[in-house]
Amino acid sequence: MSALSEELDKEIKKRRTFAIISHPDAGKTTLTEKLLLYGGAIHLAGSIKSRKTQRHAVSDWMEIEKQRGISVTSSVLQFDYDGCRINILDTPGHQDFSEDTYRTLMAVDSAVMVIDVAKGVEAQTKKLFKVCKQRGIPIFTFVNKLDHYGKLPIDLMDEIENVLGIRSYPMNWPIGQDGQYMGVYDRRNDKVLLFAADTTHGQQARIADVYEPDDPAVIERVGEETWQALKDDIELLDEAGEEFDMEKVNSGELTPMFFGSAMTNFGVQDFLEGYIRMAPTPQPRMSSDGLIAPDDEKFSGFVFKIQANMNPAHRDRLAFIRICSGKFERNMSVWHERSGKIIKLAQPQQFLAQDRQIIDTAYPGDIVGLFDPGIFGIGDTICDESHKFKYADFPVFPPEKFARVQAKDTMKRKQFVKGIEQLTQEGAIQLFQQAGAGMESYIVGTVGTLQFEVLEYRLKNEYNVDITMNMQPYEVARWLAFKDGSEVTPASLRGADRGMFVYDRKGNPVLLVSNEWALGWIMDNNPDLILNHVPFDRKEA
């Protein structure tokens, strides 16, 4: 075994890379903060709903996120805990951000699903869960907000199974009745954890009082009735519940379930320790050359996110790279698959939200941010030049909302074009040019309406451009081709005037129509036309 091979083996075993998925408001950003608090990365958790101060969550860095209290872009956070190196990718929970979220889920080895104890499984959770299921990645469940009145734990288990089609195995069980919880029973260690009173409003790590189950002090604190109810529940779980099966967890068929409250730090440490013990280390990835194992000594990785202007003072642009194999070293030269060129990876950075530091080395499972002069695109593969290949493409989403966008001040056309190009490269918007129209305006397509707000906000704040935006009445986009390979033009397409004929950035013809009915008419009148939801060279998400 070579020295590099030993080093890789040791580092890979330490890595856990995961994303937190949930519906907006289930408490995902708060949980992220509390995990960092336990990891010693932040000393005082700036709870979003904190009463004492108006600090914003560490992982939400864009101003629009601070105003709305939502995560708009996925941040990357890294910390060490108990001998492990943890990489958390925070995903936007807002329904409009499925694309960025989807890409983030391509870069992780497992996911943590946060569920609100009162609301159960919500719409956005279903969508994100589906993506994890498609990829077969292990899912761990954290039932949050136990400090509030909520559904019975047994009902939540049923709901997860009925709605998401995955069985759950509770690793701990809430102690209390009618949503009034006092602690949890840890099934694996057969211990009772009761929580000390929280006097800091969740700003500091809370210590649990740990008892043996038969300690009389437990009954004294929780009361005879609650204690009996807990015993009955545990007996039922042991007899009728799922068996714990690590293989099923790894294939995404069984989810280990933890109960707690991120807001009051209740059960968070218990969850973190359980997660580290069970979660997978970095996994192999599919490529044009078959599976690439993380312990392959030759370096490789892929770009899953591009973010401009994270630091407004520097007008910088970063490409986020998930390392898949080998050892990353600062200033190393690698082969960039899309351009076919050798490039040097300078100024690599790691993150704690906005705080960054230059790093010298990184290993599979780690995420590094590389200064990007404009060469990287989403989904790009970088690898050792002695073994060239390409990682499997990211699926793309068909746009559903469209607007005509132009700069209010024609003198600012240059900044306008630069800003629009930048946001397109980040994958925040899809860009189209109307056939026969001038270059003053663009047609912008997005998956959801909130992205238009972000577009307007960022053009104003980062490029100093005010825009006029006119929403278009189209909801369906189709990429076009004739079966015989002849060119599709507005003149060669019957009924092109029933929608808007545009070209995408690569010059491919696309038709925007207002509904499926109009689409049906076009199909009937152009029998030799092929219609695609996404560009012909891409796979649909």
TrEMBL record:
<comment type="similarity">
    <text>Belongs to the TRAFAC class translation factor GTPase superfamily. Classic translation factor GTPase family. PrfC subfamily.</text>
</comment>
<dbReference type="InterPro" id="IPR027417">
    <property type="entry name" value="P-loop_NTPase"/>
</dbReference>
<feature type="binding site">
    <location>
        <begin position="90"/>
        <end position="94"/>
    </location>
    <ligand>
        <name>GTP</name>
    </ligand>
</feature>
<dbReference type="InterPro" id="IPR031157">
    <property type="entry name" value="G_TR_CS"/>
</dbReference>
<protein>
    <recommendedName>
        <fullName>Peptide chain release factor 3</fullName>
    </recommendedName>
</protein>
<feature type="domain" description="Tr-type G">
    <location>
        <begin position="13"/>
        <end position="283"/>
    </location>
</feature>
<dbReference type="Pfam" id="PF00009">
    <property type="entry name" value="GTP_EFTU"/>
</dbReference>
<dbReference type="Pfam" id="PF16658">
    <property type="entry name" value="RF3_C"/>
</dbReference>
<dbReference type="InterPro" id="IPR004548">
    <property type="entry name" value="PrfC"/>
</dbReference>
<keyword id="KW-0648">Protein biosynthesis</keyword>
<dbReference type="GO" id="GO:0006449">
    <property type="term" value="P:regulation of translational termination"/>
</dbReference>
<dbReference type="InterPro" id="IPR038467">
    <property type="entry name" value="RF3_dom_3_sf"/>
</dbReference>
<feature type="binding site">
    <location>
        <begin position="144"/>
        <end position="147"/>
    </location>
    <ligand>
        <name>GTP</name>
    </ligand>
</feature>
<dbReference type="InterPro" id="IPR041732">
    <property type="entry name" value="RF3_GTP-bd"/>
</dbReference>
<dbReference type="InterPro" id="IPR035647">
    <property type="entry name" value="EFG_III/V"/>
</dbReference>
<dbReference type="GO" id="GO:0005829">
    <property type="term" value="C:cytosol"/>
</dbReference>
<dbReference type="InterPro" id="IPR053905">
    <property type="entry name" value="EF-G-like_DII"/>
</dbReference>
<dbReference type="GO" id="GO:0003924">
    <property type="term" value="F:GTPase activity"/>
</dbReference>
<feature type="binding site">
    <location>
        <begin position="22"/>
        <end position="29"/>
    </location>
    <ligand>
        <name>GTP</name>
    </ligand>
</feature>
<dbReference type="InterPro" id="IPR000795">
    <property type="entry name" value="T_Tr_GTP-bd_dom"/>
</dbReference>
<keyword id="KW-0342">GTP-binding</keyword>
<dbReference type="InterPro" id="IPR005225">
    <property type="entry name" value="Small_GTP-bd"/>
</dbReference>
<dbReference type="GO" id="GO:0016149">
    <property type="term" value="F:translation release factor activity, codon specific"/>
</dbReference>
<dbReference type="GO" id="GO:0016150">
    <property type="term" value="F:translation release factor activity, codon nonspecific"/>
</dbReference>
<dbReference type="InterPro" id="IPR032090">
    <property type="entry name" value="RF3_C"/>
</dbReference>
<keyword id="KW-0547">Nucleotide-binding</keyword>
<keyword id="KW-0963">Cytoplasm</keyword>
<comment type="function">
    <text>Increases the formation of ribosomal termination complexes and stimulates activities of RF-1 and RF-2. It binds guanine nucleotides and has strong preference for UGA stop codons. It may interact directly with the ribosome. The stimulation of RF-1 and RF-2 is significantly reduced by GTP and GDP, but not by GMP.</text>
</comment>
<dbReference type="InterPro" id="IPR009000">
    <property type="entry name" value="Transl_B-barrel_sf"/>
</dbReference>
<dbReference type="Pfam" id="PF22042">
    <property type="entry name" value="EF-G_D2"/>
</dbReference>
<dbReference type="GO" id="GO:0005525">
    <property type="term" value="F:GTP binding"/>
</dbReference>
